Amino acid sequence: MSGGEVTSNGASNMQAAGADDAPKEEVLIRMARPKLRSVDESQFTPLVVPIGPYHPRAPGCSSQLPEEKKQHAADKVLRPGHMKRAKTMDELNKLLAKAKACYPDLSARNSRLLENQNRQEFVQMLLHDGCYVLSFLVDYKSASDEAGSGPGPGPGPVVMREENWVMRDTLFLLENQVPWFVLEKLHHCIVGNEDRSVLEDLSLCVRSLLKDRLHTSGRPRRLPASASDDVPSTLLHLVHAYFMPTEKCRTKKEHLVLDVASEPQSNPAQGATRSPSRSLHRIIRRCCPPQLRARRSSSTSTAAQGETVVVEESPPDITEEVPPTAAQGNTVVQPRVPSPRRRMGRWRRATEYCRYGNVKLKRLHLADDDGEADSVLDVSLQGRTLLMPCLLIDSATWTLLRNLMALEERMDRRPVTAYCVFMSQLAGKAEDVELLQRAGVVQHFLGNDGEVVNGFADLCREVVLDVDSPDENYLNPNWNKLQELCQSKWNNFRGFFREIHCDNDVHFFAFVGAVLLFLFQLAQVMLAGFSLHNKQPK
């Protein structure tokens, strides 16, 4: 989706695809991985409205009620017997083969729809489901108002009473989706304007819904690069685009890979007698701050000649190719040696970062104009301050994050998965959740803090993530910086001191009062000593 911006004037149109066009990998609507799904199948199952062929019936309601609502939504935007409805059916018949190919796991769930005699049933499903989703997200005008201002964002009157449940089923579920090109074709048939993209109208509503849930700001976002013709593949893909962290919070390749043997040597003999330990010591003194030189020089092993030394603690994802060296007139080509990288460990708990690293937690605000962050994933570390937007936690939060992680399993970048792993280990105990709430970075509506801990623990079960890869784990550099803070003895002392004496206002004022009392007593003793000394006979 390079260059595609979700604004009123920056949406890109997708060309109508023929029936013989095969969908790309990004357009495929797959079911969640079986092991990931088995942790809690209810997080991938619609409760009110089944959309698509994977879930023909929602377990929470009768089989007829959702279909009646879908048909009512289709009749509202496309009147039965109208020429517009017949044209829409013809357009969907052209997209039938491509739409079926978007559901590769259909044979395991509802193979009946793959049969040729059920062709009309599949088209009817696309019509009803697509119109229902569009009616929920876009307030279409009646036929007499079509010449007016056009559609607007916001949930329509069809599903107002069940808005929260419908939002969960239509936006947040991986397996409950309609292909984007079907929604776009239906949108064009409803409004009768091929130049007006569905991305313009749907993005406004999705942005508003995510802002109300404190997940993203209300500002327009530029969609990440993709091969899907500058449009999302599904509504969940659009939600994922708004969750992407901003560029300033993503992994920056600031690591420094230095090759001791790559320095130009005018005299090979002189280069052979150069001490590798002296070269390593010079590199460390050049790149490290003074307070870390002694510790790093003692913990870093001595590099042999020709060995690559990684100075920055961020794990590099590229390697330096060692240039050829000349020896006695013959050119010796050295192979490309992968540079070592620091292995990432577990995140510490929030209380441990404050206790051992003297780290402060500060909330970033999400706002339309002057907000400090655009997404709840905009986590950054500035000095000893960990900046985090507030995460709103309720029963739908686990469903949304779980489905976004399932969507990311077929992506190169996995920021939502990295964020969930980070939060699940940061909030390891109830005291950590309490600390995060006091800092304003977590706001939950569950029964107690223990339920939040259990929710985060279950959230990352059966989740696979390469934490050492900066492409998959955008928070990798922050772990290295926080680890350095926790290994500092001075930060250990300050963190313990602040936890004991300054963890709240009462302790702080009590500590200040004790210090002042001690100073007054010390001054009294000194004055008494001086007075006694002056009274002694000379």
UniProtKB/TrEMBL annotation:
<feature type="region of interest" description="Disordered">
    <location>
        <begin position="294"/>
        <end position="344"/>
    </location>
</feature>
<protein>
    <submittedName>
        <fullName>Uncharacterized protein</fullName>
    </submittedName>
</protein>
<keyword id="KW-0472">Membrane</keyword>
<feature type="transmembrane region" description="Helical">
    <location>
        <begin position="508"/>
        <end position="532"/>
    </location>
</feature>
<dbReference type="Pfam" id="PF03140">
    <property type="entry name" value="DUF247"/>
</dbReference>
<keyword id="KW-1133">Transmembrane helix</keyword>
<feature type="region of interest" description="Disordered">
    <location>
        <begin position="1"/>
        <end position="22"/>
    </location>
</feature>
<keyword id="KW-0812">Transmembrane</keyword>
<dbReference type="InterPro" id="IPR004158">
    <property type="entry name" value="DUF247_pln"/>
</dbReference>
<feature type="compositionally biased region" description="Polar residues">
    <location>
        <begin position="1"/>
        <end position="15"/>
    </location>
</feature>
